[in-house]
Amino acid sequence: MKHALSVTRSENFAAWYQEVISEAEMAEESGVRGCMVIRPWGYGIWERIQKLMDARIKAAGVDNCYFPLFIPLSYFAKEAEHVDGFAKEMAVVTHHRLIQDSKGGLVPDPEAKLEEPLIVRPTSETVIGQAMARWIQSWRDLPLLTNQWANVVRWEMRTRMFLRTSEFLWQEGHTAHADRDDAMAETLRALEMYRAHAEDELAMPVFAGEKPENERFPGAVATYSIEAMMQDGKALQAGTSHYLGTGFAEAAGIRYQDREGQQALCHTTSWGVSTRLIGGVIMTHGDDDGLRVPPAIAPHQVVILPMLRDDDGDEALLAYCEDLRRALAAQTALGEPIRVLLDKRAGKATQKRWGWVKKGVPLILEIGGRDAANGQVSALRRDRLYREDGKVNFAGQDRDAFLAAAAAELEDIQRSLYAEAKARRDASIHRGVTDMAGLEAYFAEDQKYPGWVELGWSRPTGAELETVVARLKALKLTMRNTPLDAAPVSGTCLFTGKPAVETIYVARAY
Amino acid sequence: MKHALSVTRSENFAAWYQEVISEAEMAEESGVRGCMVIRPWGYGIWERIQKLMDARIKAAGVDNCYFPLFIPLSYFAKEAEHVDGFAKEMAVVTHHRLIQDSKGGLVPDPEAKLEEPLIVRPTSETVIGQAMARWIQSWRDLPLLTNQWANVVRWEMRTRMFLRTSEFLWQEGHTAHADRDDAMAETLRALEMYRAHAEDELAMPVFAGEKPENERFPGAVATYSIEAMMQDGKALQAGTSHYLGTGFAEAAGIRYQDREGQQALCHTTSWGVSTRLIGGVIMTHGDDDGLRVPPAIAPHQVVILPMLRDDDGDEALLAYCEDLRRALAAQTALGEPIRVLLDKRAGKATQKRWGWVKKGVPLILEIGGRDAANGQVSALRRDRLYREDGKVNFAGQDRDAFLAAAAAELEDIQRSLYAEAKARRDASIHRGVTDMAGLEAYFAEDQKYPGWVELGWSRPTGAELETVVARLKALKLTMRNTPLDAAPVSGTCLFTGKPAVETIYVARAY
Questions:
Q1: pTM of the entire predicted model
Q2: Domain chopping of chain A, boundaries
Q3: For chain B, does the N or the C end have fewer beta carbons within 10 angstroms?
Q4: Which residue of chain A is at minimal alpha-carbon distance from B139?
Q5: Backbone φ and ψ of B187, nearest 5°
Q6: CB atoms A97 and B90 under 8 Å
Q7: Measured between alpha carbons, how far is A472 from A455 in angstroms, rounded to an integer?
Q8: A340-342 and A302-306: which strand pairing?
Q9: Residue A423 DSSP code
Q10: Do residue B70 and residue A43 have CB atoms under 8 angstroms apart?
């Protein structure tokens, strides 16, 4: 069967991923190393993610702020002293002016060298910590709940669009609390917010759990994540939430006077999701015809394609389509007005159809002159693109009947995409592995990575954990997280031979 | 009369401006040179501006995208060749890694020096031009209408919060068209969009017009602006829109095949507004008690302050206030649900009241136990803060009557703030100056800048214009713009002695 893309997932998943991004016009290389241009369809999905996540953030009483792009080098020096594994791949600003050199070219002006280099923020704990130290005096100021939507830069040697780029867009929440319990509650609230967003809005099933010690954010006391399984069986860490203890508060001087008048250190948290989520959506829902966007995050949920003929009939056809558009836009699906586009551009309807198929619009309507005359619509669900006979699955329907069911249909697509992804993921969780040989055998099979292995382990730490990490690394495997909602475990840890105390997922990962 | 701020506008306008920002908790110095931290109240106003402007941008068919933060130096070298007055104060990234030096400090790693320095974008014409050249092939691809919301950096020696900071937030629209007429129409559409936003939403009267040749964006064929008068009589350029001709298209290779199959250069435009608008709002509407936020851009339009007594009565009082909050939130004002906050924080109601007065919330409700028992509210309009006797102007009202009128009251505040600002501005436009001595005398008076001078001028260019600019500069004056809707002029240009052809405003400016 012929598909809209030239590469299928099973042939070459990595090439397929790039082709979806290119054919759906989501993003492209910018010509600037490691940075991408996010095109309207990709950015429109990000705007939907922002809108839905921002509503969740605000509903939790968190205030949006904006902090500087640049962080003085000395702020990091303090961090580097305290933190093993401090990442040093960052963009460094050293000059503030260009001048013309003797050949007429432009060069950084040696006279305009900064006394202290500035770092383009890779994350904002340090600079936000300084602000918190100014803002917090007493217990009355706590909790302090802030968030920012921003671009950040981490110099990456190997980049992949949406998944790992030198510049990316994200939100970073930063909060300060009076004690551990309150900070931990916020850490887990953010984690649950991410789980709900991923599952209810991105239709992407995830495990919410704690990362093993070796995967903690540098300086964190505990790091939690949501982990999603991509269609190639690899894991994607799709969001993280950190309980930072009092370490960052100590470094930045975030103190408060408690109810008894004593000075105490705040307990802080941070949590973030990024444009990486879009990569997750592609690899969760894409198929061999391109992207499929869950209706909750689709910039257009319905596209109407009039089959224009450049003749006298076009006017009536467009009027019919505009009326349909208005009737759809007046309806509510998934708690918001339906987002519908009437695509009046010049060009063949079938060509335009495949453009929208590749972009993954949930519902496509093709309307011909006869449909308009007979009060019909011809509707295509992107998640049910082909009939059993291989033909494109358009369903001719009475206009009024279609309108009456349209909102429910979009909601059904949202549910169906989730159910499909969840069934696939759950079928790809392998249990019953009892030794390293079994683990190796499972992942070695056909040089493919069929899914994840769920194990009970003994939660080793320190040197014992390092040994486990090294053994897994030799197999190109990582531990993902220990899910919060797992059932109690029994048996033996295959890494340490000690009694297992919790469930953990092992997988190859992005 | 005592006011909430320690400095009045008439005593020291610049110090007053800083105090509003600080007391309204809008922004603060970040400790990073030239960069500010935008706090929740300031950022909340920016979010409102973004939401309203973004709706206008999308309604015009412009697509949001995202382009890289970094621009290779060579892109600017090309521009510098072509553009006189090319600004060179920019943040230059030269390294991509830090290492520990021999003393344990962090320094840029000499091994990680970039082959080509990267510039932190001061504006994105060059990098967006490259993308347009890839995206545009034929006349069918035109017009191409893009916008991005982003942070940009221009190294500023003297900074002032919101008005001139090294990093600021803005939107930049970039469009490509088949011909001059279409590009000019877009340039003027964006200008009109800015005018409408400023006047209808920021309640800030502006003149929309063309900048004189010497004030054009480097490389532009024509630059238009909206210009607002601040309460100290100075002008604020609050938004610009540029018709760029074919110069940028030529530099970036933005060409298309026309209907006849010929290759042609696109005509491009760019247009932007920034967080500077917030400075304009402060200096247009602030008074000696702090900010006054127009309801259209107020993060909270109504704040309800229950006068809690820490006793048994509090529960009924809070229930009454929550009911009031719900009733207000269910109403629509200025086309959106009313944004209302029930402020339950601990602390004295009067202290909290003055906090909200300084932040400029349009309507403040103070509710005591007796009000709750009697079905009353006590309402304070921020724009009518004091009675004639100097007392705070609370109006006790029946709850139902208040609710019935609340939306209209907010809309009246929006109108009143605009009317007040417009009356003040119009009264401060001085006409009838016929020679340089008169101009000098007007602006010299008391070392104050009472307003602007409206002149007819001959639209000099080249060297003749430069002479005019220099003479004005000696008086610390600038030409603002030539308003589009001015009446025909007669008489003589006081600068050149030639017949006047158009109206222009002369003012001191931010």
A1: 0.97
A2: 13-69+123-285, 295-416, 429-507
A3: N
A4: A346
A5: -55, -45
A6: yes
A7: 13
A8: parallel
A9: H
A10: no
Q: Which of B96, B119, B167 sits opposite A68 (nearest CB)?
A: B167
Residues B106, A76: C-beta atoms closer than 8 Å: yes
Q: Which fold has domain A13-69+123-285?
A: BirA Bifunctional Protein; domain 2 (3.30.930)
Can you read off the two tokens belonging to residue A262?
Answer: 């004593």
Distance from CA of B137 to the nearest CA of A (A): 15
Candidates B57, B74, B93, partner chain A, best to mutate (most A CBs within 10 A): B93
Best of B26, B37, B118 to disrupt the A interface by mutation (most A CBs within 10 Å)? B37
Which of chain A's residues have a Cβ under 8 Å away from the Cβ of B65? 37-40, 43
A158 SS3 class:
coil
> Tens digits of per-residue pLDDT, B453-486?
999 999 999 999 999 999 999 999 999 999 999 9
Alpha-carbon distance of B63 to B149, in angstroms, equals: 11
CB A178 within 8 A of CB B81: no
Most distant pair of Cα atoms in chain A: their distance: 83
The CATH number of the domain covering residues in B13-69+124-285: 3.30.930.10
Distance from CA of B163 to the nearest CA of A (A): 16
Whole-number Å distance between alpha carbons of B295 and B285 = 12
Q: How far is residue B455's CA from residue A287's CA, in Å, rounded to a whole number?
A: 66
Q: How far apart are CA B478 and CA B494, in angstroms?
A: 15
| Contacts B346 to A, Cβ<8 Å | 140
Reported confidence tier of residue A448, pLDDT bands at 50, 70, 90: low
Among B7, B3, B11, smallest CA distance to B22 is for B7
Top residue of B41, B54, B64, B66 to mutate, by most chain A CBs within 10 Å, is B66
How close B364 gets to chain A, by Cα (Å)? Answer: 21
Q: Which two tokens stand for residue A255?
A: 């103190």
Q: In sequence order, which residues have a C-beta less than 8 Å from that of residue B108 and are 6 or more positions away?
A: A92, A94, A117, B94, B95, B97, B98, B99
**In this predicted model, what pLDDT tens digit does every residue of B422-439 receive, in sequence order?**
999 999 999 999 999 999
Cα angle B311, B314, B317; round to 5: 150
Cα gap B343→A436, rounded to integer Å:
58
CATH number of this structure's domain A429-507? 3.30.110.30
The alpha-carbon radius of gyration of chain B (Å, integer) is 26
Fold category of A295-416 in CATH? Rossmann fold (3.40.50)
Q: Are A121 and A153 in contact (CB under 8 A)?
A: yes
- Cα of A155 to nearest chain B Cα, Å: 6
Q: In this predicted model, what pLDDT tens digit does every residue of A469-478 receive, in sequence order?
A: 999 999 999 9
Whether the CB-CB separation of A430 and A454 falls below 8 Å is answered with yes
Enter the tokens of residue A40: 């309207």
How do strand A376-381 and strand A395-398 relate by DSSP bridges? antiparallel
- What is the C-alpha separation between A292 and A380, in angstroms, rounded? 13
> Given an 8 Å threshold on Cβ–Cβ distance, is B35 in contact with A69?
yes
What's the CATH code, domain B295-425?
3.40.50.800
Measured between CB atoms, which of A37, A63, A96 is closest to B40?
A: A63
Q: How far is the C-alpha of A95 from the C-alpha of B486, rounded, in Å?
A: 45
HEC string of B303-356 equals EEEECCCCCCCHHHHHHHHHHHHHHHHCCEECCEECCEEECCCCCCHHHHHHHH
The angle formed by the CA atoms of residues B180, B181 and B186, to the nearest 5 degrees, is: 95
